[in-house]
Amino acid sequence: MTTDTNMKSPEAAAVPPSGPAPVKKRVPRGHKRLLTRRDRITLGFMAGVPTVLHVALVWVTALASIALAFTSWDGIGFGSIKWVGLDNFKQLFNDNPQFWPAVEHNVIWFVVLILIPTPFGLFLAVQLDKKIRFSRVYQTAFFLPVVVSLAVTGFVWQLVYNPDTGLINSLIGANKPGHYIDWIGDPHLNLWAVLIAASWRHTGYMMILYLAGLKGVDPSLREASSLDGANEWQTFKNVIFPTLRPTNTVVLVVTIIEALRAFDLVFVFNKGAQGTELLSILITNNIIGESSRIGYGSAIAVVLLVISLVVIIPYLISTFRKERSA
Amino acid sequence: MSTPTVALGAKQRTPLRPARILLHVFLIGTSLAWLAPLLWAVFAALRPYSETSTKGYVSWPDKLNFDNFKNAFEQSDMLHYFGNTLLIAVPAVLVTLLVSSMVAFYVSRFDFRLNIFLLLVFTAGNLLPQQVIITPLYRMYLLIDLPGITMSGKLYDSALGLVLIHVAFQSGFCAFVLSNYMRMLPHELTEAALVDGASVWRMYWQIVLPLCKPAMAALGTLLSIWIYNDFFWAIVLISTGENMPITSALNNLSGQYFTDPNLVAAGALLTAIPTLIVYFVLQRQFVSGLTLGANKG
Questions:
Q1: Cβ separation A47–B228 shorter than 8 A
Q2: Which Pfam families does the UniProt entry name for this protein (chain B) (predicted)?
Q3: Which chain A residue lies closest to B36 (C-alpha atoms)?
Q4: Most buried in the list A15, A21, A210, A275, measured by CB within 10 Å?
Q5: 0.95 surpassed by pTM
Q6: Distance of CA B149 to the CA centre of its chain
């Protein structure tokens, strides 16, 4: 995937590779000379229209979130926007009984996903990569949960967790009144119940990413290591796993982002009440709930934004640096 | 970009050794466990409420029929909600592909100084959690008046509003993937066309785009499933139950109409059917789409 070395224009290739800066300067001129005015306008539109749409709906709103986080606003007319400084954050950190649990649950969400379904997905991928019969059938079974929407997944798992009619309680005999195990209602259990459903889905996703990564491993590496007498585990640990580094990076980023985005399952289960609070849910409740505390909701969004950027920025820098040097 | 489809490739079947048999036993067991929640939903959906309410859910079925599916479909007017979804998903997928391929073309075929920055803006935007931007977006949608264009007279509570946010959000991912793809096409193709005096639009539409068909197909499949499955945008940006797409409508309906779990099971399964069909028909595209973006390190 890094073979795009010679994709620059011939002019660029002609320049001795003395450093990236002069190369960059010469290339555009070579192109621009050939482009007519009309072409340049066309290009401007082709890049401009999508950019305006994307920036207006994604980045302007992200910046607006930051600005609104320092205000209080009931949403009725712009006149009622009041600057309140750090009040929203103070309230959030000190007085909101749901905030710290939500942060904790988002962290737990990530830790569980990275420790259980991710290695299990890798394990399944390694097994399925062994040119095994019916590989496609197995893959489909593990992958089906990724195709079904998270909202539908929520409904399906409710059927499993239902206290009186659910599969689990029926099987363990806890479906009689007085002996209920309320998987969704009990604040000590519900987060784990939701996480089982989330892990069910995450495993298949990770399996596919790792399968794709494993396809890229040079077969001669495997041969060499088996000639050296390494056993399966040694080969995996010392040869295969190190070559999966790019995949691991992607898996890590995807998992963190999934943990920060987690919403649908919980919303369908119990709307994030008691025990399953998440940052995403708190923000949403500020919008579609009764109260419209825009500044406050935005303050939570800023917390989520900051956490996300801590992950996104280093990831993008490393990705794009590779791209440039490629 | 090696084809990331996870096919068996050249089949060199090894004879069945005990280790292999053990592996198959393990995989069959896990596969069944994995399918269990879905199979359980199917089982519940096939049974009449009268039977499960007296015999319990874990019991041998006397009667299995499709009544629940039929009732869920009719009682909740599912066809209407499927229609809403089509109205959102079809334009959203097509416009996203168009728009992101234009950005990708610009970024990958012309070396302007802002290219990398532009691509960064798109890619980073797609990685943000949706909730980060929802509060101002929701307010913005309420403020934008579109009398006569949308039913609600605003961007809020309209299919158009959902299409726009899907396009804006998803084009980040697609622009990134497509620009990588386009960068691998030989530069001589467009160089020659440029020297011959072809317009930029022609280069894009007649030379580059046709060559991107595999990537476009993969992304199109992926986008269809993602946008079909969207729950969050619709929950927040659509207020009238009638206007909701199917996945979020189901959430409303489960409280309103469905009084028994069997009917909920049937409704949930019906909602999942279109994505399952797309997946089974276009499996290869779907999987390669997922790994197109992720495969690069």
A1: no
A2: BPD_transp_1 (PF00528)
A3: A160
A4: A210
A5: no
A6: 26
DSSP one-letter string for chain B: ---------S--PPP--HHHHHHHHHHHHHHHHHHHHHHHHHHHHTS-HHHHHHH-SSS--S---SHHHHHHHHHTTHHHHHHHHHHHHHHHHHHHHHHHHHHHHHHHHS--TTHHHHHHHHHHHHHS-THHHHHHHHHHHHH-B-TTTSTTSBSTTSHHHHHHHHHHHHHHHHHHHHHHHHHTS-HHHHHHHHHTT--HHHIIIIIIHHHTHHHHHHHHHHHHHHHHH--HHHHHH--SGGG--HHHHHHHHHHHT--SHHHHHHHHHHHHHHHHHHHHHSHHHHHHHHHHHHS--
**Res. A74: pLDDT tops 90:** no
Cβ <8 Å between A280 and B129: yes
DSSP A113-162: HHHTHHHHHHHHHHHHTTT-TTHHHHHHHHHHHHHS-HHHHHHHHHHHH-
| B39 touching chain A per CB within 8 A | no
Compute the 3-state secondary structure of chain A and give helix, strand, coil in percent, each to the nearest 5.
Answer: 75, 0, 25
Dump pLDDT digits (tens) for B2-16: 444 444 444 455 556
B83 alpha-carbon distance from chain centroid: 16
Helix axes B213-229, B261-281, angle to 10 degrees: 170
Chain A residues within an 8 Å CB radius of B186: 7
Structure confidence at residue B257 as a pLDDT band (50, 70, 90): low
Neighbour tally for A237: CB within 10 Å: 12
Provide ipTM, 2 decimals.
0.87
| pLDDT tens profile A237-252 | 999 999 999 899 999 9
Closest CA to B47 of B38, B36, B59, B34: B59
Encode pLDDT of A268-318 as tens digits.
Answer: 988 878 889 999 999 998 887 766 788 999 999 999 999 999 999 999 988
Q: Measured between alpha carbons, how far is B52 from B62 in angstroms, rounded to an integer?
A: 10
* Contact in structure between B71 and A177 (CB atoms under 8 Å): no
Of B295, B259, B228, the residue nearest B88 (C-alpha): B228
Burial of A5 (0-12, 13-18, 19+ CB in 10 A): exposed
Size of interface A-B (CB pairs under 8 A): 354
pLDDT mean over B75-103:
94
d(CA A152, CA B213): 31
Q: Which amino acid is at B251?
A: N
Rg (CA), chain B: 24
Please give the residue of chain B at the shortest CA–CA distance from A306.
Answer: B132
Tell the residue number behind the tokens 């530069």, with chain if given.
B187
Contacts of residue B133, Cβ cutoff 8 Å, sequence gap at least 6: A57, A58, A61, A62, A65, A301
B192 touches chain A (CB under 8 A): no
